[in-house]
Amino acid sequence: MELKTNYNEIAPAYDERYKLNYLTGVEKSLSDVVSGQKINLILEVGCGTGRWLKALTSSGKKLFGLDYSTGMLKIAANEQKYLYLINADACNLPFSKNTFDMIFCVNAIHHFPDKEKFISEVFRTLTAGGLICIYSVDPHIDNSWYVYEYFDNVYKNDQRRFPSLTETQMICEMAGLHTEEQTVVEEVYSERVGKEVFSDPFLKKHMNSQLANLSEEEYQKGIDKIKNKISVEPETKFITDIKFYLTKARKEI
Fold it and tell me: What predicted TM-score, i.e. pTM, was given to this entire model?
């Protein structure tokens, strides 16, 4: 069964994550790609509240944002009225062929129900020589997140939801996009000891899709497992070590 995160429910608190970690490495990578290319029209698919489009406003490019959640788009529109925002499905982009010079998504591709269809839509709507930039994590090779250990099925679900780097490259190549690079652009690391773990905002149920997708019973079961572990071993270390990767591919001329 495909898990679907209710982002209308998450939307009001979503941007709290950027107060905790602004992901400057992802932003620098995105800005470097934009500034180093002959790009005019840019589309972000899964734009959410517009955090990444906002980072590109000084680039002078024409920016479009697409998201399936009206709740997320409402926040983006309220804060950034200069954007062209569209409520639509990532797997059916409502644009003509050869429209955008660059399409990107940040930590969103795992939400798209048909990754192959999304990439084929990217190929269709990119101009010749246009770029797709996919920023994502890969739990198939990186699994050092304490949430995976204490919440049942979360890791298994992430392995199913997130395409691996290899799979992402394969999907791009099958659609006719040439992969230019796959690189680490950001590493998020934190270590909390014992009860300090409860100060981790990402342990709140609606701060990430992994926990938001759990039932209240499943979520509480995980919290209880953490509490029990601390009661037995008060100095238990709870480690988060997550890498963000860029897959950059081009529609050849």
Answer: 0.92
